[in-house]
Amino acid sequence: MKGKLIVLDGLDGSGKSTQSQLVAEALEAEGHRVRLISFPDYNEPSSALVKMYLAGEFSADPAGVNAYAAGSFYAVDRYASFQKFWRQDYEAGGIILATRYTTSNAIHQMSKLPAGEWDGYLAWLEDFEYDRLGLPRPDQVIFLDMDRAVADALILSRYEGDKTRRDIHEQNRQYLESCRATAMYSAEKLGWTVIRCDDGTAPLPVSEITRRILGEIHRQIFEKER
User: Which CATH superfamily groups domain 4-225?
Assistant: First the structure.
């Protein structure tokens, strides 16, 4: 019996990692068996090309590496992670909670393409990762949406004000704004749930965001099984 794959995604600074941990703990407290995973898997050799890309070794501009090439870097890292670490838990019926997934290619890499090519990229992405590589399709995708200025402040706080520590995505405001457009398009096209995480000037309380995420998981995953 296959398990459930739930994805939390969002742009840089949206609080994905924090929320994934809190949601996993809450689901475990309810008695669910949860495996928490995150992409890219920087501790594994499979992320080598991703790290080179983010460090600007191929291009200092994200657009300098085309959407299909960069998308394949991330896809291979996910394939290795699935085969080595969480396939058994998933196939045994556990809940897999992923911070980023194939969805991140739809957000970040698709933004490099003109809007007229978005549908083609989404079709390629789903065929390549789910059909060709055999990665599981998510049962639910939750996108954490946060105002760019609010998220940028959180990123700087994370790096203690040192702007040089940001990767090539975090450094490029125009790129991240384009990514929000592709995220909203993908959410509409693919049926993702969008949760707003700020009030326009500041982040919402962490506990409130967690409550909203759990509410959507219960509504879309558990209540449908009853």
Answer: P-loop containing nucleotide triphosphate hydrolases (3.40.50.300)
